[in-house]
Amino acid sequence: MLNRRLHRIIVGGITGIVLFSIAGAWLLVSRTSFFFAFVCFSIVVVLAIILVRRMERADRQLESFFSTINNNDFNVQFTEKEDDKFLSGLFREMNRIMVQFEDKQTELEERRLYYESIIRVLTHEIRNSITPIASLSADLIKYTDEYGKEGVIDGLQTINQHAQQLNAFLNAYHRLTHLPKPVMEKVKISSLFGKLNRLLSSERGSENIRYISPENADILFDRNLITLALINLIRNALQATADNPDPQIRVEAGREGNSSFIQVIDNGAGIPQNRLEDVFVPFYSTKKDGSGIGLPLSRRIMQLHGGELIVNSIPGKNTIFRMTFPDHNEDFFSI
Questions:
Q1: What are the pLDDT digits (tens) for 30-58?
Q2: Are strands 209-212 and 249-256 parallel, antiparallel or unpaired?
Q3: SS3 category, 67
Q4: Higher pLDDT, 190 or 166
Q5: I want to staple 37 with a disulfide (CB 3.0 to 4.6 A). Which of 28, 56, 126, 157 is the partner?
Q6: First vs last Cα of the chain: how many Å apart?
Q7: Is 321 helix (H, G, I), strand (E, B) or coil?
Q8: What does DSSP assign to residue 333?
């Protein structure tokens, strides 16, 4: 549409300039009317000035637009001109593109930081595993006689343990980075909660879990992936409340605004405010035997659904992990 408008302006302006130039030249050459010839040439000059100014104004804004994108400055907004439909439409389109660029830039930055954190952890863990393996294997080769048969066997067992730990770590990394594409379907929340209750019934503290959802509620998502994410969140809540004399865990589903959500609430010790985002860093864990993979995996699953997983915590009171699903779940209550 903008191209057609610009085309009409240019063609109309040039056509006017050509026609009035011809008319003025004919009037001047034929000596029919010097006054009307002067009027025609004046109109040509006016049309040329209007056309040049119009193009310069659009050109300046386009130059500013591309400069803004090149400098990654997405705070600039182009004011729409109510008296100029062409420029108004052009600036509206430019503002829309700016918003899209900003969203994409934010997404790319989040991905960059996410993969940077994974690479840092990968480097750290691999180095920690490889260093003792390399050192011990070199000693076994160099001092085989001193170690003796039992010493060599003991050293090989130690190397094997480190190799198994490294293999388990790499398997966890593979799970995190090779999740399948979600197969979307409408899932009845009551059915999902019933399945979770059965799967976790053997877990210590599972009797303290309450499942709450509106009657006949359903949400659009991948049943298997969301089940996996919720198991991770609920197990995290079970571990957080293990030392609480009155443990309480609630798994709730609901709708807020245009989005559906499922949240897991526990009354464990809580997470300090400065550590809230750390829990989503791959392989980060404050637990002695924690893998640090459950929460990052759950967040990644929500990202694949176009949703998000956020955490809020008041230490000593409660912690809430909320999974928010995009607004294509408008039919939350089915009849």
A1: 777 777 777 777 877 877 777 777 666 66
A2: parallel
A3: helix
A4: 190
A5: 28
A6: 43
A7: strand
A8: B
